[in-house]
Amino acid sequence: MLGPVILAASRSDKMRRLISAAPVTKPVVDRFIPGETVDQVVPIIRDLTGKGLEVTMDVVGEDITTPEQATAARDAYLDLIERLKQLDLGTKAEMSIKLSMFGQALEGGHELALDNVRPVVEAAAAIGTTVTLDAEDHTTLDSMFAIHEELRKDFPQTGCVIQAYLFRTEADARRLAESGSRVRLVKGAYKEPAEVAYQQKAETDKAYVRILKILMEGEGYPMIGSHDPRLISIAQELARKAGRKLDEYEFQMLYGIRSDEHLRLAAEGHRMRVYTAYGTDWYGYFMRRLAEKPANLLFFARSILTKG
């Protein structure tokens, strides 16, 4: 029940100011967001990949209100790519992009977002890696999928994200699996109405398994975005039944959550990618991490009680 309340708070300017000003906030945020600049996260990338893990990098920030801000977001990713080029990690370091950062919600936003994201995808391909388009709230998805389809004409490794709690997702999964796409499956972390999304965790979990089965049996490359031990075990079993080799799918988890499990899966030979966010506009990302899992909220609450 707390999840919707936290998600509502993520859109509140008053709550943003209150939480940002709290002295205990930064140490807790650092658990999930290890830096604000490229220079600060390069050592994190080196550390994770040195342990046999892979990464997907997210420059956080979604509240874009001008085309100039969208251009700045594009340039931040291009700067990141320049640094990744020096590390020469190939697909071990890819990028995740929210099209809202690239101007999707502005007037003429679909074309603006496509124009801004294309040079990032081109630059990523030039250094041997790729981009995954993150899913946002359900009103943005038709545009995201259309941009994804357009980018795949020239860059077929461009991935996208689908959310198990949406009713539409099983049909989206079939289409993407048939086309051979890279697809990250997550449960979903936005507050969505009952008309479009499951409201109970048990329903979402069942949908997750149904959709994952579609992806594993399809022609694409499934990326399992979950920290749930039961779903991870189910994913391994579905992959085995589908005859997939260990390099024909991957697990993805958030930086700072179940780090021991990251290493365990990698040690077993699985591709294990750590979703690593950085940047100054961390508030919305941080609040969704709290909303996704009660343990994250308890972690934050304990920090307040012990340090406040």
TrEMBL record:
Record-linked InterPro entries: FAD-linked_oxidoreductase-like, PRODH_bac_arc, Proline_DH_dom, Proline_oxidase
Cofactor(s) in the UniProt record: FAD
Family annotation (Gene3D superfamilies): 3.20.20.220
Domain Proline dehydrogenase: 45-299
Short name of one Pfam family: Pro_dh
Keyword Flavoprotein: yes
Key words, A-Z: FAD, Flavoprotein, Nucleotide-binding, Oxidoreductase, Proline metabolism
Record's catalysed reaction(s): L-proline + a quinone = (S)-1-pyrroline-5-carboxylate + a quinol + H(+)
Assigned EC number: 1.5.5.2
KW Membrane (keyword) present: no
Annotated pathway: Amino-acid degradation; L-proline degradation into L-glutamate; L-glutamate from L-proline: step 1/2
PANTHER family: PROLINE DEHYDROGENASE 1, MITOCHONDRIAL (PTHR13914:SF0), PROLINE OXIDASE (PTHR13914)
The protein's name: proline dehydrogenase
Organism: Streptomyces siamensis
Taxonomic lineage: Bacteria, Bacillati, Actinomycetota, Actinomycetes, Kitasatosporales
